[in-house]
Design goal:
This protein is α/β, with parallel strands linked by helices. It is built from ten helices and 37 strands. Bound molecules: uridine-diphosphate-N-acetylglucosamine and calcium ion.
């Protein structure tokens, strides 16, 4: 078995993005580009992964911590200079080294795998992953001899009129013989339009030394997109979105309109679940089968059971059971745990609350910092008064409780099992189980009131 190493180039600042955010950290479908790259490489069983980082290194490192080693490129003198920074970690290794740019988030793991396999099969010292495109502007062009063998790569800025007509481009992903790579990098000069040490120059140097250089062309040009500016970023987003949505549809999920359904790369969805337009599902979210989500719902970092409906609602960092009905217009805020068969209706906000099986809050409520038992009914407009301006307090509503409409439960407070709270009550003391608590002024009817005020005159 050949040892496989990988180098990710991620030290460039990305001036063309015109951003405070480091280029490779710009998200595509909610995940930083460089994380997509490392996800794809991780499928390859590499012996070591080294990421080249520059300014803002701490931020890039924190995203990749534990998944990569790092080498610092203090000054961004070009892609060859960047790879050279990995010499201390990789220089002595035997095997082949995959070099990938941190700004090409769409290259598929299968393509990288095929590139490595082709490289080994050809017994090449360097193999370039190339793509063919009708709009090659900005990319390095692959210059082949009359016999069709790869001779060198010329950067767009250095290319002649003739060379710019070439439609085969360098994707920026390569496979090298590791030792040969580090030996050759030392021979690269910066004698070009940009005054940079170009990694693609390694190809010409190897070629003129009589070594075997190969090219592996992917037929899916979408894969090869390098994100240098926000226009390309939106293209990457579109391609990645289509790819993710297709994966789910092939897995048995119905997506009514994939054009406006946004699913993060790490989301899991069960079969026969239907996603209606305007749905955004992101982060580490898992949704079971036979659910209906949307239209216009946002679910982030949450787990949803089976046969659950979530309409026009927002769910963040929470757990939702099976056979639950949420919305329209509900807001489930972080750390909520909604058990099976619950109903959360319109204009209900739930925060940091356990909501027991079969319980209901059907209209206009705020339930925060609460433990709600099973089969509880929370009447329209009832709220937990959980905050005194400084601290948050717990409200406990035990099994089978009935909270009448428009009640305030002033925490800390417990409503015991099976108790009733009369509509319009402001509960400040615990209610014993099975009791009826009424906490409001009695109604007074002043008979003949209107007549009396007139006769006073
Ligand atoms: C590069 C290739 C070009 C190829 C294209 C594919 C070179 C000279 N050109 O051009 O042939 O068609 O990618 O997308 O390699 N980086 C560093 N340190 C540096 C410079 C860059 O780490 O000193 C990193 C960047 O963060 C980026 C990657 O290397 O992730 C590529 O650099 P970039 O400036 O985007 O190169 P391109 O002009 O796109
Ligand atoms: Ca680029």
């Amino acid at each position: 078995m050949t040892n496989i190493y990988a180098v990710i180039l991620a030290a460039g600042q990305g001036t063309r993005m015109k951003s405070k955010l480091y280029k490779v950290l710009h998200p595509v479908c909610g995940k930083p580009m460089v994380e997509h790259v490392i996800d794809h490489i991780s499928g390859l069983q590499t012996n070591k992964i080294v990421t080249i980082v520059g300014h803002g290194a701490e931020k890039v490192k924190s995203h990749l911590e534990g998944r990569s080693e790092f080498a610092l490129q203090e000054e961004q003198l070009g892609t060859a200079h960047a790879v050279m920074q990995a010499e201390d970690i990789l220089g002595q290794e035997e095997g082949c080294t995959l070099v990938v740019c941190g700004d090409t988030p769409l290259i598929k793991p299968e393509t990288m795998e095929a590139l490595v396999a082709y490289h080994l099969e050809q017994k090449a010292k360097a193999t370039i992953l190339t793509g063919a495109t009708e709009s090659p502007d900005g990319y390095g062009r692959i210059i082949r001899s009359e016999q069709g063998t790869v001779e060198r790569i010329v950067e767009h800025k250095d290319a002649s009129e003739e060379e710019r007509k070439v439609k085969e481009i360098n994707t920026g992903t390569y496979c090298f013989d590791n030792r040969m790579l580090f030996d050759t990098l030392k021979k690269v000069s910066n004698n070009n339009v940009q005054g940079e040490y170009y990694l693609p120059d390694v190809i010409e140097i190897l070629k003129s030394a009589g070594e075997t250089v190969a090219a592996y062309q992917t037929n899916d040009f979408d894969e090869t997109l390098g994100v240098n500016d926000r226009v390309a970023l939106s293209q990457a987003e579109k391609t990645m979105r289509a790819r993710i949505n297709e994966k789910h549809m092939r897995g048995g999920v119905t997506i009514i309109n994939p054009e406006n359904t946004y699913i993060g790369p790490d989301v899991i969805i069960g079969s026969d679940t239907v996603l209606f337009p305007g749905t955004v599902i992101s982060g580490k979210t898992e949704i079971g089968s036979d659910c209906e989500i949307g239209p216009n719902s946002e679910i982030k970092d949450s787990k949803v059971g089976e046969r659950t409906l979530i309409r026009q609602s927002v769910v963040h960092q929470s757990q939702i059971g099976s056979d639950v009905n949420i919305g329209p217009f509900a807001h489930i805020r972080p750390d909520s745990d909604i058990h099976d068969e619950v109903k959360i209706g319109n204009f209900v906000e739930i925060k940091k609350t356990v909501f027991g099986k079969g319980s209901k809050a059907s209209h206009l409520s705020y339930i925060g910092d609460a433990e709600v038992g099973s089969d509880v009914n929370i009447g329209c407009g009832s709220i937990t008064v959980n905050y005194d301006g400084k601290k948050k307090f717990l409200t406990k509503i035990e099994d089978g409780v009935f909270i009448g409409c428009n009640s305030n439960l002033v925490a800390p407070v417990t409503v015991g099992k099976g108790a009733y709270v009369a509509a319009g009550s402001t509960i400040t003391n615990d209610v014993p189980g099975e009791a009826l608590s009424i906490a409001r002024a009695r109604q007074v009817n002043k008979e003949n009131y209107v007549q009396n005020i007139h006769s006073d005159k």
